[in-house]
Amino acid sequence: MQTPLFFLNDDSKLLDALRNGNDQVLAELFQKNRRPIISLVLRNQGTEDDAEDILQEALVVLWEKIRSGSFEYQAKLSTYIYATAKNIWFRRLARRRRELPAANEAFEVAAEDATPQEELEENERVTAVQHAMEQIGNPCRDILLLYYWEEQSMEEIALKLGFANADTVKSKKYQCKKILERLVKKVLGGNNEQ
Amino acid sequence: MKEKNSQHWASDPEKVEAFVLHRIDESERVFCTTHLNQCEECRRAVQEERELVAGIRYVGRKEMKLRLKQWIQRGQGKRFDWIQAASLAAAIILMLGAVFTIRWFTDFNQSKTRSHEIVLKSDDSSQRSLWIIGKVVEQKRVFRGTVSENSSSFIIKQGNVTRTVSIRSALTAELPLSMRTSGESNLQTLFERNQDGLQLTIYTSTTPNSVTTGIEAVTADSLIVYFRGRQIAYYIPGGWAGKM
After folding, report:
1. What are the boundaries of each domain within chain A?
2. Which among A7, A21, B33, B41 is placed 20 to 30 Å from B134, CA to CA?
3. Nearest CB to B58: which of A8, A126, A180?
4. Distance (Å, rounded) from C-alpha B12 to C-alpha B23?
């Protein structure tokens, strides 16, 4: 019996697809990992909607790590996704526990404290940046997202957004950052007046 | 005074950004962090930059999550379209059948094999190199093309296509600490493209002397290397001619 060669396991194919910008593969990962995450969340005081929500967050975390090059393949993708989703869920439970102290006792697993990232996201200035990003408009919004979130190079951004070259993007990014900072000050000023 | 000012790095917005985005090297990072402990103004500048980046990234994540939700909903909608699913399945079966047949008659004469684990570790496109952990393949394969050995280089011919693969081994002690992994079956390999083709450096924990290597099988985007009595399957991202 002869068969052709098949070298790639599913994880390698999916990682390769994500590295090559085929982001819709995340939907496939969602379907593949949905059942165990639902089971985890249902066992720990959550609903099916909670499970789907944290699985989506875990997949975005995975996507960010792959894009920034900081993802290290040390376990199967499903294991990584499960562990990430579990952390997100227990941190979310811990936050709810802080808000509703009486609901404390029934937790199965001790939750971790909020991460520095989450603490940052709850910070007033960070919230102001989010509001400012809603106001800033394009191309500034796209440039800032591509540079700071997707961590793309100036050359890649120039190509994607149709700028003449990397230097043009660099100077535009500088202007956009200044505009964002001004908008943040305005948002914070407005908040303080209220 | 002059020396103090030169260390006051956080007055340079580009440096603050590079520090927050982890785009400075380790020695500079240590210097900057040490200075931060003594400079309240610099700490504030770094914190403000962190908050700005965190806010932008939060917006990015939120958008990505929305996009993901749409893809999932679209996928779920399609799942119940049985006619479309059946047509797709039939097309895939036909395509796979064609691929099986072509590969069967053109590439290999081989026995049935078990599954393979090929893992992409990380890549560095600027150096055009790629770290791969290859896992040992269990059963013997026979390559039907011709492989001729020239010292540690192998010239692979399949039809009109000629490829050169150079294989060398090195000690895992030479690997950067962050790249080392544990486990017998994990043989880390550095893939590099050079003018002639591919250069593979296989890292092992024992002395690289008396290494026997060979090429066992090749497809358009993969190869099996015979190394110290074991066969290691590698996936070549982008294929032989592609960019790593």
Report:
1. 10-113, 123-193
2. A21
3. A126
4. 14
Report H helices in A44-147.
48-68, 77-99, 116-121, 124-136, 140-144
**Residue B86: its H or E element:** helix B82-106
Contact flag B60-A57 (C-beta cutoff 8 Å): no
Copy the structure tokens of residue B171.
């000690």
Residue B142, chain A, CB below 8 Å: the answer is: no
Nearest to B118 among A9, A57, A133 (CB): A9
Contacts of B61 in chain A (CB under 8 A): 57, 60, 64, 149
What ipTM did this prediction achieve? Answer: 0.78
Mean pLDDT of chain B: 66
Q: A-B interface: how many C-beta pairs under 8 angstroms? A: 152
Residue A17: pLDDT band by 50, 70, 90 thresholds?
confident
Whether A125 and B141 lie within 8 Å, measured CB to CB: no
A94 burial (CB, 10 Å; 0-12 / 13-18 / 19+) is middle
What are the φ and ψ backbone dihedral angles of B195, each rounded to 5 degrees? Answer: -60, -35
Residue B52 is classified by DSSP as H
Q: What class does CATH assign to A10-113? A: mainly alpha
